[in-house]
Amino acid sequence: MRKISIQDIAEELKLSKATVSLVLNGRGDEKRIRKETQEKIKNYAKLHNYRPNQFARGLSRGKSEMVGLIIPNISDNFYARIASRIEQKARLSGYTVVYSSSGENPDREKELIQTMLDRQIDGLIIASTQKNQEEIKRLKKMNFPFVLIDRHYPEIETNFVIVDNAGGVVSAVDQLVKQGRTRIGYVSLQSDLEAIHQRTEGYLQAMKKHGLPVESSFVQEVSPESYEVEMNQAIAHLVEAEPKVDGIVFATHYLTAAGLRSLKKRGLSVPADVAVVSYDQMNAFDLIEPPMTCVIQPVDEIGDRAVNILLDTMRKNETTKQLVLKTDFVVRKSCGG
Amino acid sequence: MRKISIQDIAEELKLSKATVSLVLNGRGDEKRIRKETQEKIKNYAKLHNYRPNQFARGLSRGKSEMVGLIIPNISDNFYARIASRIEQKARLSGYTVVYSSSGENPDREKELIQTMLDRQIDGLIIASTQKNQEEIKRLKKMNFPFVLIDRHYPEIETNFVIVDNAGGVVSAVDQLVKQGRTRIGYVSLQSDLEAIHQRTEGYLQAMKKHGLPVESSFVQEVSPESYEVEMNQAIAHLVEAEPKVDGIVFATHYLTAAGLRSLKKRGLSVPADVAVVSYDQMNAFDLIEPPMTCVIQPVDEIGDRAVNILLDTMRKNETTKQLVLKTDFVVRKSCGG
DNA sequence: ACTAATTGCTAAATCGGTTTAGCAATGGAG
DNA sequence: CTCCATTGCTAAACCGATTTAGCAATTAGT
């Protein structure tokens, strides 16, 4: 049961490689190969479990039927779910997805893009660190098909599928206001990510819209590296400086987690003392006490749209498509509702 | 800035493809190519950003420098973390990891294995559905390098890295006993997975060891498809039948989650009414009230060991390696401690 | 009966590398 | 001056497919 090549089949059946290849690629009729011959080839191939060597095929066709996916971190549930969806969706169109995590490291991201290009992938989906403009520009200049997801470079014209971050936070603030909260704080991340800035924008917009004051202590930022520790500081500012907040919006799910721990340590009760809404969710956010109110990102839609756009771009050279998806919202007890 | 091939370099520098290839693969000295010539080639290659075509290289070398990873579900945090670790570790040895989710579907798993073999991967790491003996046997017969992780086929002699499931549950029961609980229930999954059976074994062993009775209502099984619903039934049996349980061990993290919801619905308090220990963890298990006591699986070690074994197997044809890793344990409030 | 069209298939180039056997030129030893 | 070693490099086969131009044999058309 050794590996069998097209050559082997051709010799065995006393035909040429060309004929065999044509038939096995379904071009037998088009090339007017006799039905009988076609059957013979197909049967032999099936019987001996013929499998085309993808290297040879790729080399000669210049296509790999693979698309690359680069995300910051596969063990972040948000990206894992996107990855999972993209894989499923891409498979339906016959593509294999190759994915890798950049660990939020631009150099590594660059390296990964290069590795994937070396492997002759046909297209790329990237949730970029957003510190990799040069590489993205290069892809664009190469006219290589790609789609940015979750994060994009506003200054580069590319395909992208992102989420309406500002809108998501607005709905979070709206909900707190609806519950009668007026001194609403916001905890965010020190970050260059557009998405993070937009969330802050959303907070400020929403507060303005409701005519609520934004005290200087209301907006807190912690560093991505040591947010666990800094969160205690941040919470201290929010709940001690006068006026104390009666509601907090956290900019990411893990900030919410850290924030809750911090609130708990101080003996503050949610939502009685402070109502909480989280941007983005975590697996157990409906399990915790109180269950967490969340802005929900349309994970499946991000994946589906990204794949669709990529396939379009790969096939015809479509115009660039830029999508901003609306967030969803789940009200649970943490917001005081 | 077009794509440049070895051919191009050779022509430009009036050398042969062979020389260029040799030099760029670091075999210049060995083949006694003049330093000067080597420099010329390397410089030209760097300057024009030469990148070898991996298809061509793979075709001619018969190696792809890729390893495949097949897991049930990338959006399950347990597997995501393993995948992440494996990717990092494999990269250090110059391998790219291609991964795919089987969705617990044996047919799909088989398909994935085939696809990966077609793509000429050099080795494979599989967390199998355990309903795919034929395929695994086939790999073995082909003498293809692979390692099973998390789940293995006891009747097939293969490399594997699994966890001491029974031992993990024993430590869970031990902890509950230490907290003075004596009527300990166990909620598991209807499943053919060895890992799941072993956990049940562990429960029974531990109860026996402590001389505790296992009432018929103490062991509950729910189906993987509708465990959320059936959990209510299961919990009802555990807490209503006499004698009522005063402690429960859940066989997986998501069973724990569902169980907690169910207990909450009935107004039962953890750990006052029922102490709880979870086999395996979830992201927010330290956030919930009460924080969850967990059996911790050595995720990183699974990944590291699997890669090591795979690399060994790929290089020299080592003897089969079979590893059973010990679990860890985190005590938190849910067990009454 | 002669040309034209159709049928059925193949030869050979190509993709971009790797690798082995060996050639030509130079230097040194005897 | 001849012979052998060494240096520096190359020709050509090979990996396993795809694809195009076109040949030979048969059938159809007039």
UniProtKB/TrEMBL annotation, chains A, B:
Pfam families the record matches: LacI, Peripla_BP_1
The keyword Transcription regulation appears for this protein: yes
SMART domains named in the record: HTH_LACI
Source taxon at top rank: Bacteria
Record InterPro entries: HTH_LacI, Lambda_DNA-bd_dom_sf, Peripla_BP/Lac1_sug-bd_dom, Peripla_BP_I
Keywords, comma-separated and alphabetical: DNA-binding, Transcription, Transcription regulation
GO molecular function: DNA-binding transcription factor activity; transcription cis-regulatory region binding
HTH lacI-type domain location: 4-61
Keyword Transcription regulation: yes
PANTHER family (UniProt xref): HTH-TYPE TRANSCRIPTIONAL REGULATOR GALS (PTHR30146:SF109), LACI-RELATED TRANSCRIPTIONAL REPRESSOR (PTHR30146)
Name of the protein this chain belongs to: LacI family transcriptional regulator
Organism: Sunxiuqinia elliptica
